[in-house]
Amino acid sequence: MNKRSLQFRIASYNTHKCRSIHGAISSERVIRVIEEFDADILCLQEIVDAEGGTGKYDQARQISEAFPKLNVAFGETRPLHGGRYGNMLMTRFPILETRTHDITKSRREERGVLQCAVEVGRGLTVNIFNVHLGTGYMERRRQIEVLIGAEILAQPELCGPRIVIGDFNEWTRGLTTRLLQRSFLSDRPIRNRRSARTYPGVLPILSLDHCYYEAPLEMESTKIWRSGQAMIASDHLPLIADFRLPASK
Predict the structure, then answer these.
(1) b/e string for 100-118 if b means 16 or more Cβ within 10 A?
(2) Which pLDDT score, from 0 to 100, does residue 136 have?
(3) Engineered SS bond to 100: which of 3, 75, 146, 197, CB 3.0-4.6 Å?
């Protein structure tokens, strides 16, 4: 007889360095949005971790301290404002391992992937890849080759299913989408494509944020978080995905 399956919610949110559509930087606005959708695993992109000064760039600490029960991992992409800038993962579950991968492939802004092995249940590990790809067409083509290769997604020692989630900066069905869909299931089959648009937050016209996954994970639902607070706190809307992981027999 099968044991009960495990359910969890994962969210991806590009915070735009906590800069609202009005230009003001506010970690508090981002914190209020995160409180609304109550994720078990939260993948943030464009977070600054720089203490001191006026405090507006002390975002990683302020956000993590607002959720003291969550475990935190930070993946530095580049130095910024006397601190560091990159991707952050927060979760109710234990983080077993964390790695940061540099996927910068042009003279544009540095880009990275934060990899975390998360224990979602006793003996059940899910490998989360928090992704932020570049905005350039050729840049992304080179980045996706690295992402799907043996150093990141195809690591032979990985144990447990993979979730690849974040800001892919690809609004059409380009090479990134095609290659990932060869190996993963995805949130793309949302019936109403307009409902999948995440950018810009106040009036979204592009679908930049996506979630890819593999069996035995089962996606129960996916949605874009469109609260009034979310529409102004960043230039992206959060992507929410609810998963079921059947327990082993």
Answers:
(1) bbebbbeeeebbbbbbbbb
(2) 92
(3) 75
Q: What is each CA distance from 186 to 70, 73, 147, 217, in whole angstroms?
A: 26, 24, 16, 11
Question: 6-245 — its CATH code?
Answer: 3.60.10.10
Residue that the structure tokens 């992704």 belong to: 131
- CA dist., res. 15 & res. 20, Å (int): 9
The tokens of 92 are what? Answer: 């109710």
First to last CA, the chain: 7
Tell me the domain boundaries of the chain.
6-245
CA angle 198, 28, 90 (to 5 degrees): 70
Nearest to 183 by CA among 217, 212, 207: 212
Q: Is the dihedral of CA 22, 24, 36, 12 positive or negative?
A: positive
0.85 exceeded by the pTM? yes
Q: What's the mean pLDDT in 85-113?
A: 95
Distance of CA 89 to the CA centre of its chain: 8
Cβ pair 128, 43 in contact under 8 A: yes
Classify residue 94 by burial, with Cβ atoms within 10 Å: 0-12, 13-18, 19+: exposed
Distance CA 38, CA 238 (A): 12
> Which of 10, 7, 60, 5 has its CA nearest to residue 210?
10
- Judge contact between 76 and 89, C-beta under 8 A: no
Looking at 16-20, 131-135, 141-145, 168-172, which range is the least confident one? 168-172
Greatest pairwise CA separation for the chain in angstroms:
58
Q: Provide the token pair at 164.
A: 């690849």
> Quick check: helix, strand or coil at residue 187?
coil
